[in-house]
Design a protein that fits this description.
The chain is mainly beta and 251 residues long. Helix content is 14%, strand content 54%. The strands form two sheets. A twelve-stranded antiparallel sheet has the order 6-5-4-3-2-1-14-13-12-11-10-7, with no helix packed on it. Strands 8-9 form a two-stranded antiparallel sheet.
């Protein structure tokens, strides 16, 4: 009987060791930074991204006027600083060119803060929560929570209030995609808003590639008073724009 009790104690000890080891291993896997998706937007001074930007602008001046343009936007991380809570913030200078071979014009600066929970980007004074961590399929968040729903923007002299009811979500992860002739091995897609009613259409999606950053963006901010829903929205829009940005170069 004594031998059996010792054997039982020994078995219990082995089970406890196995349980502790298993838990430690699982915790290590969960806390592995590589699994959080931080590398979908790498940040360092000197990094830059050049995008071809194709836009369609609508304006109502007696009749609807539609103007299509193609230009280039380059974003370059040029400096870092600490904000009021001592978090590291990257300054991103934004340049514009009608033809990228003819030189660039500095038009604005953006600011990016990335911590263990999210990536915030300040553009034109507005703070967008572009990514949240860990990156998980169908995970959603209020990416415009720091923007008033009544915030307005001006497009070709027309006023829009486009930022209400945006809820971002990861639609796919780790997908191989070819864009502008380049293959990206691991891409995630974020749909930021997909809302349409009789007089307004809001659609925004962004794609990020690991070790690269943002590789594609499509944004529809359109309003109309034409309520004929038999006509596709883009054909009855009266003000706003459709924008597509495609990465053509980065370092």
């Amino acid at each position: 009987m004594k031998l059996n009790i010792l054997n039982l104690h020994f078995l219990l000890i082995l089970l406890m060791i196995y349980f502790i080891t298993s838990c430690t291993k699982n915790e290590t896997e969960i806390l592995d930074p590589a699994s959080f998706g931080y590398d979908y937007y790498p940040l360092a001074i000197g990094k830059s991204w050049t995008y071809q930007t194709d836009s369609i602008f609508y304006s109502l001046k007696g009749t609807v006027e539609i103007d299509s343009t193609t230009s280039f936007i380059r974003e370059e991380i040029v400096d870092t600083m600490r904000n009021s809570v001592n978090a590291l913030v990257y300054r991103v200078d934004v340049f514009h060119a009608v033809d990228s071979s003819l030189g660039w014009e500095l038009i604005s600066s953006s600011f990016i803060e990335k911590n263990q929970y999210q990536l915030n980007k300040v553009e034109n004074g507005l703070t967008f929560i572009r990514l949240v961590f860990p990156v998980q399929l169908n995970k959603s968040w209020n990416g415009n929570s720091m923007i008033s729903p009544k915030t307005s923007i001006e497009v070709n002299g027309e006023i829009l209030e486009p930022f209400d009811n945006w809820y971002y979500a990861y639609k796919y992860l780790n997908k191989s995609e070819t864009l502008a002739g380049k293959i990206y091995a691991s891409v995630c897609k974020v749909v930021e808003v997909d809302e349409e009613n009789i007089i307004a259409k809001r659609y925004s999606e962004t794609k990020y590639a690991k070790e690269v950053g943002m590789i594609f963006r499509e944004l529809w901010l359109l309003d109309t008073q034409n309520t004929n829903t038999n006509i596709p929205f883009r054909n009855r829009a009266e003000k706003g724009f459709i924008l597509r940005q495609t990465l053509v170069n980065h370092n």
